[in-house]
Specification:
Shape: globular
Strand content: 5-15%
Helix content: 40-55%
CATH class of the largest domain: Alpha Beta
Radius of gyration: 27 Å
Strand order of the largest sheet: 2-3-4-5-6
Largest sheet: 5 strands, mixed
CATH topology of the largest domain: pyruvate-formate lyase- activating enzyme
Structural class: alpha/beta
Length: 654
């Protein structure tokens, strides 16, 4: 069995949960144990020839495929078939489309595709091979008929309602070998407590498993957590579509927290929380609050456009629940981060801009993450009908972590770059807009300036960001203008990548900056090298925009804003303890604005202390910027305290 992990070099290697779950189930049957011997699962990306040698010449090669390993899996299947023509090659996983035989047509090495949940279908497939030595019609299998080579599409298999008969691959020891194979390298593990998703969002393929939810016994879930924790697994990926929705999720969160306190692991939990977020979700996650696993509450807005919500079938997801969560989280000091998707059908440039600033307007200390809309093979959005209905235009991004990567390992991701509602030029402008919002707000490069412009002066956020972009487009000779220009060039390059089979040469730079999140992070690192000049440019940019919008900033306030940006912005720096002289009480004004209070600006000399208690190296700074969890944590400016609060500040540092 083959279950190749995601290729990202800075991420832990994920243990092969999907294929191991299938094996754990089929090996509960004596006839399967008597008829088949399973070789160790191939899941680590090694030299390609090494992978082929490990696969050998099996009777059956079963590959679990998704967007992060499809090309690799097809290259491996093709080479194994060339060396061993009698090997039966079967695909599974979320990648192949249900009832679609195009994969069989495109890849002659592939004999069959198991579609939907794999355990029961794979059991029947093994029994068929044991009896007949070839594939035949069973529910859930699309296959190449060995008699005449024709493609046969079988009926989709119904979902089982009872998961209690499914053994855990952790519990039966199937994950022990893969963990040992990593030889101490960081590992990630999947934790699955239920299956299904009640929502049918067209850009997601989670709903393809069906809307009816089914639960694994909670005793099994607890035992899996024990294995993960006792084996020192750093990262847990929750396979649940809506963690926090089920009543028992609070028990699971509490057990995870207890496991961490017992063993120090796991240290990171990546979970998709309930789409209809409510206080119940926050209550369910509360046990994790005293562990590093809780990195914030996910608010999966994706879009604020009613037209887009309708077009992607998210009408049953209530934004009123999100707003309630925003307000409750802010009142309780709970960290939140909002997910938005760029390129959804029905979303216009104007609605995207307005939606993006809703969350930062409601809670200035929240974070926003912008994902580009990917076209997942099994999602409804990938259908010919949706492509035509919404006028989708797409580009393909090769995923190459390093220039010397074997081309057979390069995966390609299809990204929406235009729709009827948002033509390609508007999409490009939306990328620029999101880049600036993420850079100044989520990555905290200009957080004090935004507090002043919006929460003190009351300027419209969209007008502020649009005004800033207009100025930056005219000044590519300045630091910020140059960073914008790099993003613009990447957008233009990316829009030319229309061929999914394209493979870049080792010397070719890929247009990573066409992703607003990636571009903002790159800019944040680059600009830290010129922190004083950047602070000056941001100050004058804010000053110019405010004047253009008819609300000029007082010169004393302008000078104080520069001091704040210059000295409090997180950057690589040696430990320091400075007392700053201000012309106004602007630090208090901004602090109050961030907390939702109003304090009037008063002129007159004031003194504030800013302290960085330890050195921040360039590497440590970049680690925060490139945080794999994508949550932009630990980037808040160094705090300012009035000199009269020095004792209090020292106590807080201690």
């Amino acid at each position: 069995m083959v279950d190749i992990s995601s290729p990202h070099v800075n991420s832990p290697t994920t243990l092969p949960y999907a294929t191991s779950s299938i094996r754990a189930y089929v090996e509960t049957f004596a006839d399967i144990r008597d008829s088949f011997t399973f070789a160790p699962t191939i899941f680590v990306r090694e030299d390609f020839d090494t992978l082929v040698d490990r696969a050998g010449r099996p009777d059956l090669l079963a590959l679990s495929c998704y967007v992060w390993n499809f090309n690799t899996s097809m290259a491996l299947a093709t080479e194994v078939k060339r060396r061993s023509p009698k090997t039966i090659v079967v695909l599974g996983g979320p990648h192949p489309k249900y009832g679609d035989d195009t994969v069989l047509a495109a890849y002659p090495a592939v004999d069959g595709i198991v579609q939907g949940e794999g355990e029961a279908a794979f059991l029947d497939l093994l029994r068929m091979i044991a009896a007949d030595g070839q594939l035949g019609p069973i529910d859930g299998l699309t296959f190449r008929d060995p008699r005449d080579g024709s493609f046969r599409v079988s009926q989709q298999r119904g979902r089982p309602g009872d998961l209690s008969t499914r053994p855990s691959p952790y519990g039966v020891g199937l994950m022990d070998g893969p963990l040992a194979e990593l030889n101490g390298r960081p590992a990630a593990a999947l934790l699955e407590s239920n299956r299904g998703c009640p929502f049918q969002c067209t850009f997601c393929d989670w709903g393809s498993l069906g809307s009816k939810m089914a639960e694994f016994p909670i005793e099994r879930v607890f035992a899996d957590i024990d294995w993960i924790s006792s084996n020192g697994i750093h990262t847990v990926w929750s396979a649940d579509s809506n963690f926090g929705m089920r009543k028992r999720d609070k028990e699971i969160a509490a057990y995870l927290a207890d496991a961490y306190h017992r063993n120090g692991y796991p240290r990171r939990l990546v979970a998709s929380t309930s789409k209809n977020s409510s206080r119940a979700v926050l209550d369910a996650l509360r046990p994790l609050a005293q562990t590093p696993m809780f990195r914030g509450l996910t608010l999966s807005f994706q879009t604020h456009s009613e037209a887009a919500l309708r077009d992607v079938k998210r009408q049953n997801i209530k934004h009123s629940a999100y707003y309630e969560m925003f307000d409750h989280a802010r009142a309780t000091g709970t960290r939140t981060y909002t997910e938005m998707i760029l390129g959804l059908p029905g979303e216009t440039l104007a609605s995207f801009k307005e939606g993006l600033v809703v969350s930062i307007d409601r809670n200035p200390h929240s974070s926003v993450i912008v994902y580009r809309c990917s076209v997942l093979p099994n999602a409804e959005l990938a259908s010919a009908a949706d492509r035509a209905r919404f006028g989708l235009s797409t580009a393909w991004l090769p995923d190459r972590e390093s220039p010397d990567l074997d081309p057979r390992f390069i995966e390609s991701h299809e990204i929406v770059v235009g729709t009827n509602a948002m033509p390609e030029p508007d999409w490009g402008e939306a990328v620029e807009y999101a880049w600036l919002v993420l850079l100044l707000h989520s990555l905290r490069l200009g957080h004090p300036a935004l507090l002043l412009l919006r929460h003190v002066m009351g300027l419209d956020y969209v007008a502020v960001f649009d005004g800033m972009l207009r100025i930056l487009r005219q000044r590519p000779d300045r630091l910020l203008g140059a960073q914008l220009q790099y993003t613009q060039r990447a957008i233009a390059q990316f829009l030319k990548l229309r061929d999914p089979a394209y493979r870049p040469s080792p010397s070719e730079n890929l247009p990573w900056r066409a992703d607003p999140d990636a571009s903002a992070r790159i800019s944040r690192v680059k600009l830290a090298e010129f922190s004083d000049q950047c602070a000056a440019e941001l100050t004058m940019l804010s000053f110019a925009v405010a004047k253009t919008l008819g609300h000029p900033i007082d010169v004393a306030v302008r000078d104080d804003l520069f001091l704040i940006l210059q000295h409090t912005t997180l950057r690589p720096v040696q430990a320091f303890d400075h007392v700053l002289e201000f012309k106004t009480n602007l630090p208090d004004v901004l602090d109050a604005a961030g907390a939702g209070r109003s304090v009037a600006i008063k002129h007159g000399p004031t003194r504030y202390r800013v302290t960085c208690s330890e050195d921040i190296s360039s590497d440590a700074f970049q680690d925060r910027i490139k945080d794999n969890s994508e949550l932009c944590i630990g980037l808040d400016p160094f705090p300012l305290h009035a000199e009269g609060e020095r004792a209090w500040a020292e106590a807080q540092l201690a």
